[in-house]
Fold:
Amino acid sequence: MYAIIEVGAKQYTVKKGDIIDVEKQAVKEGKDITLNKVLLVCKDKKVDLGQPYIKDTKVEAVVLKQIKGEKVISYKYRRRKASHWKKGHRQQLTRLKIKEIVSS
Structure:
Protein backbone atom coordinates (compact mmCIF):
# COMPACT_ATOMS: atom_id res chain seq x y z
CA MET A 1 0.00 0.00 0.00
CA TYR A 2 1.33 3.42 -0.92
CA ALA A 3 0.02 6.97 -1.15
CA ILE A 4 0.92 10.24 -2.83
CA ILE A 5 0.71 13.17 -0.44
CA GLU A 6 1.18 16.91 -0.76
CA VAL A 7 3.27 18.75 1.84
CA GLY A 8 3.95 22.41 1.18
CA ALA A 9 4.32 22.80 -2.57
CA LYS A 10 5.75 19.33 -3.22
CA GLN A 11 4.34 15.84 -3.66
CA TYR A 12 5.80 12.66 -2.17
CA THR A 13 5.16 8.95 -2.71
CA VAL A 14 5.13 7.26 0.68
CA LYS A 15 4.47 3.88 2.26
CA LYS A 16 4.58 2.65 5.84
CA GLY A 17 8.05 2.94 7.36
CA ASP A 18 9.42 5.49 4.86
CA ILE A 19 11.56 8.39 6.08
CA ILE A 20 11.15 11.61 4.08
CA ASP A 21 12.46 15.18 4.33
CA VAL A 22 9.77 17.84 3.78
CA GLU A 23 9.58 21.61 4.09
CA LYS A 24 9.80 22.77 7.69
CA GLN A 25 6.69 22.02 9.76
CA ALA A 26 5.91 23.75 13.07
CA VAL A 27 5.93 20.52 15.11
CA LYS A 28 8.46 19.55 17.79
CA GLU A 29 10.65 16.45 17.60
CA GLY A 30 8.97 13.25 18.74
CA LYS A 31 5.44 14.56 18.17
CA ASP A 32 2.91 13.05 15.76
CA ILE A 33 1.68 14.89 12.69
CA THR A 34 -1.32 14.10 10.48
CA LEU A 35 -1.07 14.84 6.76
CA ASN A 36 -4.56 15.29 5.26
CA LYS A 37 -3.66 16.26 1.69
CA VAL A 38 -3.69 12.78 0.15
CA LEU A 39 -3.86 12.79 -3.66
CA LEU A 40 -3.80 9.06 -4.40
CA VAL A 41 -3.94 5.75 -2.50
CA CYS A 42 -3.08 2.39 -4.04
CA LYS A 43 -3.98 -0.77 -2.12
CA ASP A 44 -3.71 -4.21 -3.74
CA LYS A 45 -3.96 -2.83 -7.31
CA LYS A 46 -7.04 -0.77 -6.34
CA VAL A 47 -6.36 2.91 -6.94
CA ASP A 48 -8.34 5.72 -5.28
CA LEU A 49 -7.78 9.09 -6.93
CA GLY A 50 -8.80 12.37 -5.32
CA GLN A 51 -10.10 15.48 -7.01
CA PRO A 52 -7.90 17.07 -5.77
CA TYR A 53 -7.78 15.29 -2.38
CA ILE A 54 -9.32 12.08 -1.06
CA LYS A 55 -11.79 12.68 1.76
CA ASP A 56 -11.49 10.70 5.02
CA THR A 57 -7.95 9.59 4.18
CA LYS A 58 -4.86 10.68 6.07
CA VAL A 59 -1.23 9.76 6.59
CA GLU A 60 0.09 9.65 10.14
CA ALA A 61 3.77 10.37 10.75
CA VAL A 62 6.15 11.15 13.58
CA VAL A 63 8.69 13.99 13.49
CA LEU A 64 12.20 12.57 13.87
CA LYS A 65 14.12 15.88 13.79
CA GLN A 66 14.38 19.37 12.36
CA ILE A 67 17.37 19.57 10.00
CA LYS A 68 18.99 21.75 7.36
CA GLY A 69 19.43 20.60 3.77
CA GLU A 70 22.60 20.72 1.72
CA LYS A 71 24.09 24.10 0.92
CA VAL A 72 23.09 25.53 -2.46
CA ILE A 73 25.43 28.15 -3.96
CA SER A 74 24.02 30.98 -6.08
CA TYR A 75 26.55 32.95 -8.11
CA LYS A 76 25.91 35.82 -10.49
CA TYR A 77 28.62 37.34 -12.67
CA ARG A 78 28.55 40.26 -15.10
CA ARG A 79 31.45 40.30 -17.51
CA ARG A 80 33.55 43.45 -17.84
CA LYS A 81 31.58 45.22 -15.08
CA ALA A 82 33.58 44.12 -12.02
CA SER A 83 30.25 43.01 -10.62
CA HIS A 84 29.52 39.64 -9.09
CA TRP A 85 27.92 38.14 -6.01
CA LYS A 86 27.90 34.77 -4.34
CA LYS A 87 25.32 33.58 -1.83
CA GLY A 88 24.75 30.29 -0.06
CA HIS A 89 21.46 28.92 1.25
CA ARG A 90 20.47 25.94 3.41
CA GLN A 91 16.78 25.04 3.40
CA GLN A 92 15.21 24.15 6.74
CA LEU A 93 13.60 20.70 6.61
CA THR A 94 11.60 18.36 8.82
CA ARG A 95 12.43 14.64 8.76
CA LEU A 96 9.27 12.49 9.04
CA LYS A 97 8.79 8.75 9.51
CA ILE A 98 5.51 7.45 8.09
CA LYS A 99 3.65 5.40 10.69
CA GLU A 100 0.42 4.55 8.90
CA ILE A 101 -1.82 5.29 5.93
CA VAL A 102 -5.42 5.45 7.14
CA SER A 103 -8.13 5.20 4.47
CA SER A 104 -11.83 4.64 4.95
Summary: The chain has a mean pLDDT of 96. The chain has one domain: 2-103. Residues 2-103 form one domain.
